[in-house]
Amino acid sequence: ELEALQSIYPEEFEELGDNEFRIFVAPDDQDEEDPLTLALRVKYTPTYPDALPEYDIEISQGTLTSAYHKRIMESLRTAAEESLGMVMIFTMASLVKEEVNLIMEDAERSRQEAEEEKIRIAEEKENAKFRGTKLTPERFAEWKAKFDRELAELESEEKKARARELKNRPTGRQLFEQDKSLAMSDAKYMDEGDVSVDASEYERTQAQEEEEQDDSNAVWRQFGNDD
């Protein structure tokens, strides 16, 4: 069996001592960025192949989770027990090869799923920009309370500013007391030749208005007598 194994695995077979050796196993499609190579270590027992050999899985390159290690060891035991009475190392090495390929397929699938999830999250964030926030009664009430509070604060500030402005604004009397020339301010808008009009000259007393009314009534009475 040893000669056959050395012929089948010329580069992968490594002799460690009397009846002890290991066979390096790599996947068919090795991942250059995250490679994985295992080694099936075997030691013949005195009654092999009627009894199981001593065996273990070693990590030559990369990493192997405890769950994968446990799965491979259980699969090896099942295959070895089914092969009792016959040489079984090639069967065991072939099984390790299958497991390594499955592990690499799992890793590739996980990477693809992670990449797809990353793309999905990015698309979800991009689409969220156009959807806005869903309006609910609770969110509306929260917005309304905030809006009313901000509006009240704004109105309060405007009232305070208006009050300060009115408080600091001088009255008409104060303006005249501060600048006597304001009393003659309209005179500067008069052109040469304009006449200043004293409105008091056109004021009529009540007696004058009554006298004119009596004269008018007398005229109408005169017309009546002539008829």
From TrEMBL:
| Highest taxon above the source species | Eukaryota
Record's compositionally biased regions (Basic and acidic residues): 159-168
List every stretch annotated Disordered: 159-227
Pfam families, per this entry?
DFRP_C, RWD
Which SUPFAM superfamilies does the UniProt record give?
A: UBC-like
Residues covered by the RWD domain: 1-103
Please identify the protein, giving its name as recorded: Ubiquitin-conjugating enzyme/RWD-like protein
